[in-house]
Amino acid sequence: MKVMATWSIRPGAFKEAVKHFLETGGKPQEGVTILGRWHRTDLSGGFVLFESNDPAAMYAGSAAWGPLVEFHGHVVVEDAEAGAALSKLFSA
């Protein structure tokens, strides 16, 4: 499944968050793939698109960043998947 998350750096944590990102490269937990990551130009956070079938790995990644970053994630589907689902609903 794909999860689109927004992230915001917690107040007072900017320097520590940058240091952690530069040290780790922001790599995800094993079992999680990052399909894309975008940083807001105001330096306050950004967006990341994950793919994983392992909710525990997603949780572990969020927990590792938890003191520095606040995440909000949403399971998403692509247009083709949405269209197929909607076609089934409205074709009858």
The percentage helix is 25-40%
Query: Low-confidence parts lasting 5 or more residues at pLDDT below 50?
Result: none
* Major pleated sheet: 4 strands, antiparallel
Q: Give the spatial strand order of the biggest sheet.
A: 2-3-1-4
Strand content: 25-35%
What is the radius of gyration? 16 Å
Number of helical segments with 4 or more residues: 3
Q: Round the mean pLDDT to the nearest integer and report it.
A: 95
What kind of assembly state do the chains in view correspond to? single chain
Structural class: alpha+beta
Query: In angstroms, what separates the terminal alpha carbons?
Result: 27 Å
How is the secondary structure organized here?
Elements: E1 2-9, H1 14-24, E2 33-39, E3 45-51, H2 55-65, E4 69-76, H3 79-90
Antiparallel strand pairs: 1-3, 1-4, 2-3
Summary tags:
single chain; alpha+beta; Alpha-Beta Plaits; 33% strand; 92 residues; 4-stranded antiparallel sheet; elongated
Overview of this protein structure:
By secondary structure, the protein is an alpha+beta fold. It has one domain: 2-Layer Sandwich (Alpha-Beta Plaits). The chain has 3 helices and 4 strands. It has helices spanning 14-24, 55-65, 79-90; strands spanning 2-9, 33-39, 45-51, 69-76. It has a 4-stranded antiparallel beta sheet with strand order 2-3-1-4, with no helix packed on it.
